[in-house]
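Sample entry follows:

:::
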Amino acid sequence: MSRQHSFLGVFVCTLLLMAAMFHPATDTFAQDICGCPPDQEQNATITICVGGMNRTVIVAYCNKNYCPPERGVQPCNPDNLPINARTIIRKVCIIDGGPIVADPQVIMNATVAAMGICCSGYHFFPPCKDPQAPFHWLVTTPKCVRFDVAAQCVYACDNTPCCTHLVRFTQTTTGECITDVLHSCDDPVDCEGDCIRLECRYPVECCW
């Protein structure tokens, strides 16, 4: 009987190990990397496109360039591709006094798109400029935000879950820039209190 129990225990442990190995954990997981260290957060004034109009925003973010590209950079990089840059966005405010934008998702989408290479060139990643090579970008945005409509500010809630995309930008010999979303990681945790939940979808289009 003891041998049978021992065999059963080994068999169950083997099944659990196999399940852990093959479960696609990169698609949904709790992330603790949504924040920027205070000494690394920076502000940039950029132009985004909303409703066919150029709008001016200030974006609070942190960024790390890898030149040359590095493997082993996480999260949301299941194939361990060489990463050129890792960016975390914390807050976006429209500051030009133009028409009110009522949807925080639009503001966040337009900002992420504007920071990507195919919509802005290498404005945010000058040390890594190499048009001949694919550019791999890990970009993280908050899933749970507060939206101050009057101030036109979208900002991360405390302890927010986050959304991360692994994106490849490729410059072709004809001058075309191609955006490929290779992987998206969505934290399924619910938002607390009055926080608004944003979609986890990379904004390929440059104008929102």
In short: The CA atoms of residues 136 and 152 lie 31 Å apart. Residues 32-197 form one domain. Strands lie at 42-50, 53-70, 83-94, 135-142, 144-148, 153-156, 162-171, 177-186, 196-197. Helices lie at 2-22, 104-115, 117-120.
